[in-house]
Amino acid sequence: MEESSINNTWLEFVGYKIVNISCDVMPIVGLLMENATRNNAEWAFSTGFSPITSITGESPSYVVTFGMKADFIGNDNLPKNTEKPYISAVGAISGIFRIDVEEKLLPKAEEQLKVQGPAILAPFLRAAMTSVLSISGFSGIIFPLINVYDLAKKEPFEIIRQDTSEPAEAIKHE
Question: Which helix (H) or strand (E) holds 150?
Answer without folding.
Answer: helix 148-154
